[in-house]
Design brief:
Chain lengths: 201, 518
């Protein structure tokens, strides 16, 4: 059978294969973005916890009252935003398996409507998979009117499977100004919409 | 067409030329100009660091100099020099009449001057040129970047296109235009090193183009590849950048290996020791270069397994590199050595590159790297591999092939002056930086603590000596072209290769009929 098309000239063949390799590698550069996201999702590499609410399953939760974990809370503003943003509680001791509830206070001191988005990060990073959130203000972007303030709830459960050597976990939130991006929605929001977590916008 | 057709006269000869020798010369001149531009920036950096305190330039301008010095030296001086050498010498070495794709060759050169004009023009823009270091880490290069960053991104795109076209051309030439009888394993070492370099270029320059395109989209089109607020991650930038960046450091060293493997046998009057192992070592280095990138980012946070993997993979590279150094030493062992300028630079290459390799091994130790990271130790390390590695090899190649290019011999005693002052200046500049780094002096900062004053003074004096000595090099080249003594067809007693079978200077057209290979 004759091949579909044949390149007789060896130089043309080198040229075309060279071009193909470089176009392929240009695409591969962009492919590294989803590869990195998947890699981080399974290893918790960048300390970014699962961005979906934890589905509570009562029978699976075992409270481990033999040990207490200290959770520290941090609230940081990204350079793009100047909101007042702080946890109502800086430190909490909790048995793994118990639900801890607390809240973050946020206020928009500007004379304009803005939208903020909090991005969580867990340290040490290998505790990431063991921090479950049933409710978090970070699941949604937070629109605040001019001078508006708000108390934002957070409910977390530390998994009782948490490795014994981890005694202290830091949960840090960085607040970003996404007012300009809000029309398009954030990546997180888009993902939640796709999974049917948010229906109305 | 007459048998001896000569190039047309005037400026249009250079604009329209498809001759590999013309294009090679233009690459080499561009590289020399860029070497002086980047070198002048280094002089500003060393002048500012001459003593503690802020005296000559303001910190923002200092950061611009740091960034532009890196970009211009890598993309403007070293890479075009190697491409120029490939253009000039590859067809002569493998017995080809010209490069395989001569029109593309013209285009890949002529993109470059415009890319560098665009890059340099950012210095005169409002807000100044890029000031985030040549690595352009996000968010420094997105959220906090000067407006000129867009020009920087397009300049990188243009250099990338030029490099990719150059690489395709070299691959097509080496694979298709070798003289009959010259099998791959009979090729000169320089051709082997460039073949592998060209594949590295094809594999990673598009990734660099991709990552700077992501920067462009984050800056202008509201994407969030590297913006955590939109679901991205700044650390991703570092991973993708170094996926390009590590093979890139081999792109600027492998052709040097080829040059050294050509010159050492010539002046030792012995064949290269272990040709086959040299080829396999090259292949292993090229393969390993793709799986070690994260050793540039041990401190950004990685699982322990990751740190260990990248540490061991990096250390494995010293095995094929050690094979090469062993072979070079074995080539010289019991040879009849003479010490002309090309040989002096080659021996200095072997010694100093090994020092740079050892400090690289120190940096590869992940737990120790936490101390060395972002200090002057890193600056000392990569200048020890870049300057004696790439730059000395280019000097050696220039002296070795100048008689073939110009038809005239250079001034040997002046070349020895150039060598010794370069050698002393280079070591005076960069050796103290090891101590500065171990003592904790951070890189990319225009001011420093008083305890670092003495070593910085020595480094600055060395830097000025090194810089001034390069004017001797420029003078030597001009003198060689204008008034050098005519050179014979094969001016080096021990030199082998097809390039020495054509007259000096090499005629405009060579090997129109392929030579016979025994």
């Amino acid at each position: 059978m004759r091949p579909l098309f044949q390149i007789k000239n060896a130089t043309t063949r080198s040229l075309l294969s060279g071009l193909l390799i470089s176009i392929g590698m240009f695409g591969f550069g962009f492919l590294l973005v989803p590869i990195y996201d998947i890699f981080c999702k399974y290893t918790g590499l960048n300390g970014k916890p699962d961005q979906n609410p934890y589905l509570y399953q009562a029978e699976d939760i075992i409270v481990d009252s033999s040990r207490e974990i200290t959770i520290q809370f941090l609230a940081t503003n990204n350079a793009s935003i100047n909101w007042d943003f702080k946890p109502t509680l800086h430190k909490l001791k909790v048995h793994p398996g118990h639900i801890a509830s607390l809240a973050f206070y946020v206020r928009n001191p500007n004379n304009k409507d803005m939208v903020g988005q909090a991005i969580p990060s867990v340290s040490p990073f290998d505790a990431t998979d063991f921090v479950h959130k049933t409710e978090c203000f970070c699941f949604l972007s937070q629109p605040l009117g001019a001078f508006q303030e708000k108390i934002m709830p957070l409910k977390i459960i530390i998994d009782s499977e948490l490795p014994k050597r981890i005694k202290k976990i830091t949960l840090s939130y960085t607040l970003f100004d996404i007012t300009d991006m809000e029309t398009k929605g954030t990546a997180v929001r888009a993902q939640l919409e796709k999974e049917g977590m948010i229906h109305d916008l | 067409m007459s048998e001896h057709h000569n190039p047309p006269k005037g400026l249009m000869r250079w604009v329209l030329t498809t001759n590999h020798k013309d294009i090679g010369s233009m690459y080499l001149w561009l590289s020399l100009i860029m070497f002086f531009v980047g070198g002048f920036m280094a002089m500003i950096i060393r002048a500012e660091l001459f003593e503690p305190g802020l005296q000559i330039v303001d910190p923002n301008f200092y950061n611009q100099m740091i960034t532009m010095h890196g970009l211009i030296m890598i993309f403007g001086a070293v890479m075009p020099a190697f491409t120029g050498l490939a253009n000039w010498m590859l067809p002569l070495m493998i017995g080809a009449p010209d490069m395989a794709l001569p029109r593309m060759n013209n285009w890949s050169f002529w993109i470059l001057p415009f890319a560098f004009i665009m890059l340099s023009s950012t210095l005169f823009m409002e807000g100044g040129s890029p000031n985030f270091g040549w690595t352009a880490y996000a968010p420094l290069s997105t959220t906090y970047a000067p407006n000129s960053t867009t020009f920087f991104i397009f300049a990188i795109h243009m250099m990338g296109i030029s490099s990719i076209m150059g690489a395709i051309n070299i691959i097509a030439t080496i694979l298709n235009l070798r003289a009959p009888g010259m099998t791959l394993m009979k090729m000169p070492m320089f051709a082997w090193t460039w073949l592998i370099t060209a594949y590295l270029l094809l594999a990673v320059m598009p990734v660099l183009a991709g990552v700077v395109t992501m920067l462009l989209m984050d800056i202008h089109f509201g994407t969030s590849f590297f913006n955590a607020g939109g679901g991205g991650d700044p650390v991703l930038y570092q991973h993708v950048f170094w996926f390009f960046g590590h093979p890139e450091v081999y792109i600027v060293i492998l052709p040097s290996f080829g040059i050294i493997s050509t010159i050492l046998p010539a002046f030792s009057r012995k064949p290269l020791f272990g040709y086959t192992s040299m080829v396999y070592a090259l292949g292993s280095i090229a393969f390993l270069s793709f799986i070690v990138w994260a050793h540039h980012m041990f401190t950004v946070g990685m699982p322990l397994v990751g740190e260990l993997f990248f540490m061991y993979a990096t250390m494995v590279i010293s095995v094929p590199t050690g094979v090469k150094i062993f072979n070079w030493v074995a080539t010289m062992f019991r040879g009849s050595l003479t010490f002309e300028a090309p040989m002096l630079f080659s021996i200095a290459f072997v010694v100093l590159f090994t020092i740079g390799g050892f400090s690289g091994l120190m940096l590869a130790i992940a737990p120790a790297d936490f101390q060395y990271h972002d200090t002057y130790f890193v600056v000392a390390h990569f200048h020890y591999v870049f300057v004696p590695g790439s730059v000395f090899a280019i000097f050696a190649a220039t002296y070795y092939w100048l008689p073939k290019w110009t038809g005239n011999m250079y001034d040997e005693s002046l070349a020895k002056v150039h060598f010794w002052f370069t050698f002393i200046g280079m070591n005076l500049t960069f050796f103290p930086m090891h101590f500065l780094g171990l003592a904790g002096m951070p890189r990319r900062i225009p001011d420093y603590n008083l305890q670092f004053a003495d070593f910085n003074l020595i480094a600055s004096v060395g830097g000025f000596l090194f810089g001034a000595t390069q004017l001797v090099f420029l003078f030597l080249i001009i003198k060689c072209i204008k008034t050098g003594k005519p050179a014979s067809e094969s001016p080096w007693e021990g030199a082998e290769g097809l390039e020495w079978t054509v007259p000096s200077p090499a005629p405009y057209h060579t090997f129109s009929t392929p030579p016979d290979i025994k």
